[in-house]
Design a protein that fits this description.
Two copies of one chain form a homodimer. Chain A is mainly alpha-helical and 201 residues long. Helix content of chain A is 66%, strand content 0%. Chain A binds a DNA duplex (30 and 30 nucleotides) through α1 and α3.
Chain lengths: 201, 201
DNA sequence: GGTTAATGCAACTGTTTGTTGCAATTACGC
DNA sequence: GCGTAATTGCAACAAACAGTTGCATTAACC
């Protein structure tokens, strides 16, 4: 009993409940936002009693952190056509798809409200987005090797600039994001990259 | 009594209390964040009883909205040198200064997080940024007239792309933002604009 | 099939949010 | 100044919520 519940008998109903609670947490985060998400609302949605959630996760922060970690395997498609403009466009559309998905929406909403008060949640979110930023590295490296981009182009910074306008629409202007917006973001970052904006000395 | 308090006798102590509460609200938002800011904490800080705040503002959302509206006078410097690259750079540094100011950073995070649960706060957010986005219009129009930018360039969209990377650093990656970052954002948006990314058909 | 971990349930405590009646204070017209 | 009514302070209150605990029930694992 010194160990938290769910460790000694992790199969059967325990695993089922864990999955249901994680899914309910993400849905609540996406629909209602971080501060409107309560342990009770998650338990109700998951069809589980609140004491079960309290006993296994202890706090809302850990619950949110684990739920977001469980989505880490959701991947953005990595394009590999060799056409830089097309690859960036595909990547941008992938970012758009993540941003507008249930998981992505939950991550974004948690990012701006929950991460302020919880270092634990903030750390998970950093890991979450860092894993997605690396997607662009091979694409950029090949373009540099082929001479289609200037040598020394910082692929991580390029990826941030690819995603930034899409985040901006979601977070700041609260506008919808469609494929046309993703295409524009890709075109903008391509022009900037060709101009050497992302070249690190 | 059908009207909210503070309208019939707006002078004297009423005005003094209103100013104290607004100032306390901004301070709380800056120090503790949106969800940690409560009406009671604001009242305590302002040296006013909580019933006064409840009776006059009714909800936390209206209180926050009014407090943030009071900061709308903070202006970004409008460059006018005629050098497009330099003007964009100056503008980007102005955005950076707003984003990184003590009150500004908290205000931005508050706007973004509060806007997700409160349409009223969201409206303040839109108005706030709409007033700043227009800053770039004359600069872009002159550049288009001089042939330094393609005809049909959307100045509002350009301004969003100028600000997006700076917001991204503050909100998503939680990285510090300095003048070098602002300069890079300006260079990126200039390259994109010259490539015709912001041309509307 | 037996044991025991995990869960459901209800009842509880403590905290927070928001309200209300009433007395004290004070802004504003005269 | 002065009277009156709006505003505020105060205390007490109701309601909602967070989090805990004891105990009975269920079911995972040997």
């Amino acid at each position: 009993m010194s160990q938290p519940p769910g460790t000694a008998r992790p199969g059967g109903r325990t695993a089922q409940n864990r999955a249901a609670v994680v899914e309910a947490t993400l849905a609540e985060l996406a629909e209602r936002g971080y501060d409107q998400t309560t342990i009770e609302s998650v338990a109700l949605r998951a069809g589980v009693h609140k004491t079960t959630v309290y006993r296994r996760w202890r706090t809302k922060e850990r619950l949110v952190a684990e739920a977001l970690e469980a989505t880490a395997e959701v991947q953005i498609e990595v394009p590999d056509t060799g056409d830089l403009a097309l690859d960036l466009q595909t990547l941008a559309r992938g970012v758009r798809a993540v941003l507008t998905s249930t998981v992505g929406s939950a991550a974004v909403r948690t990012l701006v409200s929950g991460a302020q008060s919880s270092p634990e949640v903030a750390q998970v979110l950093r890991t979450f987005w860092a894993g997605r930023l690396t997607k662009v590295i091979p694409i950029v490296e090949r373009a540099v090797a082929d001479g289609r981009l200037p040598p020394g182009t910082d692929s991580i910074e390029l990826m941030k600039y690819l995603a930034a306008p899409l985040f901006h629409r979601v977070l700041v202007t609260a506008e919808p994001v469609n494929d046309k917006d993703a295409d524009r973001a890709a075109a903008a970052v391509l022009a900037a990259a060709r101009a050497g904006v992302f070249v690190v000395i």
